[in-house]
Write the structure tokens for this entry.
Amino acid sequence: MANLEPTPYIWFDGKLVPWNEAQVHVLTHALHYGTGYFEGIRAYACADGTSAVFRLKEHMQRLVNSAKILNLPCPYSVDELCKATIETLVVNKMKTAYIRPLSFVGYGALGVHPGENPMHTIIAAWAWGAYLGAEALDLGVRVKTSSFNRMHPNTHMGKAKASGNYVNSVLAKMEAVQDGYDEGIMLDTNGYVSEATGENIFIVRGSLIKTTPLTSILEGINRASIITIAKDLGYEVVETQFTRDEVYCADEVFFTGTAAEVTPVREYDNRMIGEGKAGKITKVLQNAFFDVVQGNNKKYAEWLAPYSF
């Protein structure tokens, strides 16, 4: 994965700060204990020459929900965060971008309890292409079952997009890459398929689309978008538990996520999925998704937060 290309400014606690000056102390609480929460959002160039952030308000609402779950209040409202995001994109003159809002417990006390330490919030944006590789959108990715389970709901409260939760994902991702795969799929503590390290999973059998229910997974915004788009296109979508051997037998498998967008899976645990490339329904949904985010389907115009400079 390529290093980040700096942009001129990062929004930091209400001010636009030069990229290299957006710094914190090495004894910042979140650095030691993972006491933060974040979002991943994308902005896309649209066909009319403008740009738009995809489902900006929903992402910022999830950020605020994470704050509530973790009992670490965010200093800013959803509307303030949305306005700051657009401001950051415009000042950095970014037609397309990956956007990273992050709220975290700052410097002060350094026991496990965050005490009265201040909460800080940043919004950064940078250029980021296809997360799993540009060729993956057509050819698909190779994945394996991780030896690491997705956490039980009563351990880390997975509905929060909490920084500390992602140690689980880091371990699974490193294992998959070290074993020669692109991604790892984690099972829940009951042995059912949960999600990948940063993506939700869908399987297709015939014309039926299945996806994991909201039990052991993050409530993915792209996941919800694809469910809506698929149903509007006439497909039946069922949220239900399934095992990895059912995934082996699927006609198609694909991931959704802000970074991964709609990425097909061509091989799982050394078993070819379907024809070993993006399947027909996956391509239909992938094309429909990109039509939406690029402003070509006005039916979903409310999902876009337009901006220009």
